[in-house]
Amino acid sequence: MNKQLRKAVIAGNWKMNKTPAEAAALIDEMKPLVKDADCDVVICVPYVDLQTALEKTAGTNIKVGAENCHWAKSGAFTGEVSAEMLTSMGVNYVVIGHSERRTYFGDTDQTVKDRVRAALDAGMTVILCVGEYEQQRLQGVTFEVVGSQTKIALGGVSKEELSRIIIAYEPVWAIGTGLTATPEQANEVNSFIRKTIEDLYDKEAADAFVVQYGGSMNAKNAEELLAKPDIDGGLIGGASLKAADFAQIVKAASK
Fold first, then answer.
1. DSSP code string of 7-38
2. From 67, 84, 132, 170, active-site residue
3. What does the pLDDT read at residue 61?
4. CA–CA separation, 118 and 70 (whole Å)
5. If 0-12 CB within 10 Å is exposed, 13-18 middle and 19+ buried, where does residue 28 land?
6. What are the helix and strand counts (H, E) for the chain?
7. Environment class of 78 (CB within 10 Å of its CB; exposed 0-12, middle 13-18, buried 19+)
8. What percentage of residues in the chain have a pLDDT greater than 90?
9. pLDDT tens for residues 183-198?
10. How does DSSP assign 48-104, residue by residue?
11. Does the N-terminal or the C-terminal CB of the chain have fewer CB atoms within 10 Å?
12. What's the Rg (C-alpha) of the chain?
């Protein structure tokens, strides 16, 4: 992290976990543990938990996000939720382009771009996920893949709008596998993403831009990862479902 230039963001991605009652209990446990955080704290929860999360975090430093949104404002898209629906509830953050959405549900670079556009137009802050598969890393095309995903998703995004985008680098081979990119590997790609932002916009935009790491960051490795200059926080999966572990990561980001 470089706290002179930007504020760290720790965001929990709950994925398809927790009923509303379970969510309420987890948030109640979490609130006192993260109340003094010197970083932004976000929890991105399943749609059914959003109302509970908003109610439970009211008046706290915890912000609430969704895990996806559609690119259309309304229409014949059974099972989908629009950005306007989310903002009407008071939800201001949304994860877009997570590798699980790309892998299992057919998201492409183009649909990710469309979702980003819809979320920005609705006034939301986007956590945009980019990352390579294991085979792509082995083939030596990590930068090409991540650069392409970043450039396509940001197509048409103004410098002003860029302040409402966070990129989470999540190597697909390190998500839910127990594998983690080394701090050096993670920082190398995050640094490349920042250079891509500089090339697309300018150095001022790049210096202010938050790039998280999102591949199995946990309570044990967070401090070492966050010590790297271009890792500005984390998109946390499994560890965000345990209040004590999530709080430990928030603590590491607050140093």
1. --EEEEE--S---HHHHHHHHHHHHHHHTT-S
2. 170
3. 98
4. 7
5. exposed
6. 12, 8
7. exposed
8. 95
9. 999 999 999 999 999 9
10. GGHHHHHHHHTTSSEEEEES--BSSSSSS-TT--BHHHHHHHT--EEEES-HHHHHH
11. C
12. 17
Residue 235, H or E segment: strand 233-236
Which residues share a beta bridge with 10? 41, 234
Check whether 180 has a pLDDT greater than 90: no
The pLDDT confidence band at residue 3, using thresholds 50, 70 and 90, is confident
70 belongs to the catalytic site: no
Structure token digits, residue 83 = 């950005």
- With tokens 């200059």, the residue in question is 229
Distance CA 82, CA 53 (A): 18
Is 170 part of the annotated catalytic residue set?
yes
pLDDT at 188: 97
Mean predicted lDDT score pLDDT of the chain: 96
- 195: helix, strand or coil: helix
d(CA 66, CA 99): 15
Span 8-55, pLDDT tens digits: 999 999 999 999 999 999 999 999 999 999 999 999 999 999 999 999
- Exactly one of 67, 98, 100, 132 is catalytic; name it: 98
Kindly state the tokens that stand for 36. Answer: 């003094």
Model confidence pLDDT, tens digit, residues 204-247: 999 999 999 998 899 999 999 999 999 999 999 999 999 999 99
